What does this fold into?
Amino acid sequence: MRIAVCPGSFDPVTYGHLDIVRRGAKIFDKVIIAVLTNDKKQPLFTKEERLALLREVTADISNVEVDAFDGLLIDYMRKRQAKVLLKGLRAVSDFEYEMQMASINRKLDEEVETLFMMTNNQYSYLSSSIVKEVAKYKGPVHDLVPPQVEQALRDKLAR
Amino acid sequence: MRIAVCPGSFDPVTYGHLDIVRRGAKIFDKVIIAVLTNDKKQPLFTKEERLALLREVTADISNVEVDAFDGLLIDYMRKRQAKVLLKGLRAVSDFEYEMQMASINRKLDEEVETLFMMTNNQYSYLSSSIVKEVAKYKGPVHDLVPPQVEQALRDKLAR
Amino acid sequence: MRIAVCPGSFDPVTYGHLDIVRRGAKIFDKVIIAVLTNDKKQPLFTKEERLALLREVTADISNVEVDAFDGLLIDYMRKRQAKVLLKGLRAVSDFEYEMQMASINRKLDEEVETLFMMTNNQYSYLSSSIVKEVAKYKGPVHDLVPPQVEQALRDKLAR
Amino acid sequence: MRIAVCPGSFDPVTYGHLDIVRRGAKIFDKVIIAVLTNDKKQPLFTKEERLALLREVTADISNVEVDAFDGLLIDYMRKRQAKVLLKGLRAVSDFEYEMQMASINRKLDEEVETLFMMTNNQYSYLSSSIVKEVAKYKGPVHDLVPPQVEQALRDKLAR
Amino acid sequence: MRIAVCPGSFDPVTYGHLDIVRRGAKIFDKVIIAVLTNDKKQPLFTKEERLALLREVTADISNVEVDAFDGLLIDYMRKRQAKVLLKGLRAVSDFEYEMQMASINRKLDEEVETLFMMTNNQYSYLSSSIVKEVAKYKGPVHDLVPPQVEQALRDKLAR
Amino acid sequence: MRIAVCPGSFDPVTYGHLDIVRRGAKIFDKVIIAVLTNDKKQPLFTKEERLALLREVTADISNVEVDAFDGLLIDYMRKRQAKVLLKGLRAVSDFEYEMQMASINRKLDEEVETLFMMTNNQYSYLSSSIVKEVAKYKGPVHDLVPPQVEQALRDKLAR
It folds into this structure.
């Protein structure tokens, strides 16, 4: 079975993330969305909230699993017997950072292969940070995130 | 009337910013310098100091207005009936970030158009951060900022 | 009157070009599409064909003019009393080349200002070369160029 | 069966190409190396020579097939029932071009997905052009291409 | 005597840094490794620890000196009568930042020249941050840093 | 003696080239300007004309030598006992190409080190191609090339 891991903070998940996951799920037997929980930045949504939102918005894709991890990604992949790391690329700045990460990961484990997909043009500007920025000032986010995430942002920021 | 908005932190204004404003003022009927006041970073100069310095150094350009805003830039532009967002581009890294911002702004309001000007070569290395770094260690900044800003930096950093 | 010039080979005009022209025509009093006729590369369409196609596909925009030029662009702009050069930016590689051209043009005439617009995301991959490549192998181009251009490509390549 | 296509000119095949093919062959059921034969540039090696060299140097990888194609890549992939286009990325300039190609290919056929692998650091400088340039002046190419290709270059350039 | 200065945080020194220093020491009469001590970021290793590690790992290169500085680099260089600033370049993002810094340094002192070396391909992904990240989760760092640094990381992170 | 080689086509030499040579001549004992004569592109100026112009415009720098070479640069450097290859960097696109060339040259000869200088901001847009393009249409080139080159361009293009 070919398992691909899509790691990230998903704080919150956007239509850009979903596009990569959906396309990945057509190519691999299973896609594991792995939520990084030891990120230095203070997230807007808790680990549990992020996992719940991801599960809701991917409920219709049968071969997607949502999980959390901390520590080295490469150790998590070994544990899950996944050989493919699947990442979306939006821009040149993504590209250089991801190139560094792919190199270090290959150094740590030769068996792990990083594969990149170009983000769909219509989401190339999209990031979780931009979504939070727009939502904070009550701008419209319905084209950027699924309805459940839109609602969660509204609830979270109303407090 | 064609109104262009130049948004930024201007902490403090440099000759690089002034160059863009001056060139923009030749093309548009009015240029509004819009000082972003909800920036996460703690500024060196207060909102009032930044506005005062900007007004002083643009006093000789009749069609420039200095203003402050917070919230979404797109909301500010609607309020001011401005259709053009005018930005300076210095480098590839600027370019990608600005491309993202221009895309999200078009998504939020189709009527707003972002126009970019290349920063004059002689200011391509210049940023407010570099000015503050040089000033902090008493390096010369007279080629980087107008005299009023040079004095303000000296006063601020002497404290 | 504020006149903007959009220079290019337009061999042939694509939806990407049209998007820039249309958006420019909302900001400036007049947009002149200036077809470069001294290009070194052998074009697929003659100068006359390119001008005719451009005129057809911009017929509904009242403040657009289609013209041809050869020699230095800066001389053409002086002759037409245009102060603004309007260019679309798609990618980092565009950016660097255009930055060089904007610098040399400012060196040749300080009065001419180059303004850049980001190409709409949905056309960011689009170029005249790609259109010709796809058409050559009878791939579908109806999403890439207006119907008149699609027909012209078919006629031209059938010969 | 998951089939990936690796298209290119392979004029001649280098260790950089082989690295991508070998890593791809671990992830996909079959990798088809598709030699583009309608390239505008005059190749150094004929189509037959390029196919023969590729077959020799991939003889030890059981799930690799070597083939030639002309026309639109997307048509070739449909014919071969391949859904994955596998490309190596070396540098930012590769990245932008490949991003354009991936976009146009998705436009032409939504079912085809382009996946990118980062070229191994030790081959990041390597291209068929550089190999031919070095070989032309009798520089050493044994670290750049397999022995069969080295010999073929020597024979070809001795004429 | 031609003196080159290699400035940086060296928190901690990696094989990437050592590669640049070693190659620089072949070209210049003396290379001074200048540890920046007024960095805003909280370092993992104290100034004294960083200096000690650098001295240990460069002990075999006779014309290398290890020193600390704070304030403007340009002032430090004048004090040390060094005319050359030697920097490693790994990626496009490095390149743009370093281009800015080289420009501002030339502005501050025309006599100082910044020279860049490309980082060896095998270290192009390597940074002190990545080393600390890997070490924090007990990943292997022996290919990334000298043995003394590996031991120091283990001691520091065990606490 | 530390010898640096500045290779290029110099068709013709510009103020940008001269800036790099002049700055290099302050750092190294000797700078050899090495005119590449086996370039595929048909040059505007003959090898002899390019050498003569370079000699004229560098006549005031005592430690500069002008020479021609063909074949592999690395072989030329061995013959001249030069260990340093000195290149100017203008932009990201230069950077990637030069990074490739520096890697291949290190592969061919570990003793040769490539050092890069950032082109002065005021010449960052300047290239021999742009100079020829401007001169061809009788645009002013006196800010771009020395007077001797300006005259040579006028003579050459008048024919």
Remarks:
- The mean pLDDT of chain B is 92.
- Strands of chain B lie at 3-8, 30-36, 64-69, 84-89, 113-118.
- Helices of chain B lie at 15-27, 47-57, 73-80, 92-108, 128-136, 147-158.
